[in-house]
Design brief:
mainly alpha, two-stranded antiparallel sheet, 2 strands, 68% helix
Length: 372
């Protein structure tokens, strides 16, 4: 007796004629999204509940630019966590290096922004190469603790304000006369937004290329079984160092873009809490996936700002004390949201479409079994 089965990979749809167009549309969604993001500054479309006022307003463009920067930063950080299996607690250090070195060179040496940005990027490369070479001598929890120690040392150094170059706990504002005129002032918020978008596209392209390269395949092998990679005659240390330096370089570049967006360097970007935020972003979106870290970075940054507004709103202030006290704390709201997403969507938000498809397939199979 034989049983007829469908070929593997067959797509089930309510109308087979729609399978082709739907599949093609799904393949082109990144290009469509990029086009929408490019024209966002020209849009007067309001998004009630998501943004205050039209999309193209300066305040909303500033928020969207920050979302794009942290989406890119989380994508670069996932080169360590999701692609190579390295849990680093010191990634903020390289982001801060790009910000502080660029700003300090402009302020102290009087160099223009372009030259200062190159020096800031080189500082991030050199710092990640040096500290990565030391940190990767150990593995597992030892590696995490060493990166944390370096990050804490950097944070303390910034807050101690040696020679008055870091500004201590207050940070230092960027000199407006050294920045490009087209990137200064509220009238040029759209230009800053496009710079942030360009940074995101660059990071996505670099990470996608790196992951699909022969080195990226070795990273995957290291994450799965480092000992097996050694048995194949490869040296994992060198490949891990490449991932570490590449992630640090992308973070330093992000720090330079962040300096433009915020107009200064602040010590908050040097703390281990900053790296923990990146870890939350990656887990929230989906570690080890192409789009998950970016999505997690965007959602986390948006929620961090919007939930802060909600916590200080009159609606929360009018609630009974038993509800008002916790709901008036943005971190409580953000933590509750994170726990809910992790519990309801294991694997990150990026897994949601696959889970919905699996649910529909299971429901359709159940309906067929129940139909006489």
């Amino acid at each position: 007796m034989t049983t007829a089965t469908e070929p593997r990979g067959t797509v089930r749809t309510a109308d087979p004629h729609l399978a082709g167009p739907l599949h093609r549309a799904a393949r082109w969604w990144p290009a469509l999204l990029l086009a929408a993001l490019l024209v966002a500054p020209y849009s007067a479309l309001p998004l009630p509940g998501l943004l205050d006022g039209p999309i193209g307003s300066p305040g909303n463009l500033q928020l969207l630019a920050l979302c794009l920067v942290f989406g890119a930063l989380a994508t670069g950080y996932d080169l360590l966590l999701g692609r190579t299996g390295l849990l680093s607690f010191g990634h903020a250090l390289y982001f801060a290096a790009g910000t502080y070195v660029t700003n300090t060179v402009m302020l102290e040496a009087g160099l223009p922004f372009a030259a200062s940005a190159v020096l800031g990027l080189l500082a991030g490369v050199a710092l990640s190469a040096l500290l990565g070479a030391v940190s990767l001598r150990v593995s597992g929890i030892g590696f995490s603790m060493v990166t944390l120690a370096f990050a804490q040392a950097g944070s303390i150094l910034v807050q101690r304000d040696p020679g008055g170059v870091t500004g201590g706990e207050e940070g230092r504002a960027a000199p407006a006369d050294r920045l490009p005129a087209s990137l200064v002032g509220i009238d040029h918020t759209a230009n800053l937004y496009w710079v942030a978008l360009a940074y995101l596209v660059l990071v996505l392209a670099v990470v996608h290329w790196a992951v699909r390269s022969p080195t990226g395949r070795v990273w995957e092998g290291i994450k799965e079984n480092e000992r097996r990679v050694e048995m194949l005659g490869l040296r994992p240390y060198g490949f891990k160092l490449i991932a570490f330096v590449l992630a640090g370089t992308l973070a330093a570049l992000g720090g330079i873009v962040y300096l433009l967006l915020t107009g200064g360097a602040t010590p908050q970007t040097t703390t281990s809490d900053f790296t923990l935020s990146l870890l939350v972003m990656v887990v929230l979106g989906g570690s080890g996936t192409r789009w998950g870290p970016m999505l997690g970075g965007v959602l986390y940054t948006w929620a961090d700002h919007r939930l802060g507004d909600l916590a200080g709103s009159g609606a929360v202030a009018d609630l009974p004390a038993v509800l008002r006290v916790p709901l008036s704390q943005p971190l409580f709201l953000l933590g509750a949201l994170f726990v809910a997403v992790i519990y309801l969507l294991p694997g990150g938000v990026v897994r949601l479409p696959a889970r919905l498809r699996a649910t529909r397939t299971k429901r359709a199979a159940t309906d067929r079994e129940e139909t006489p």
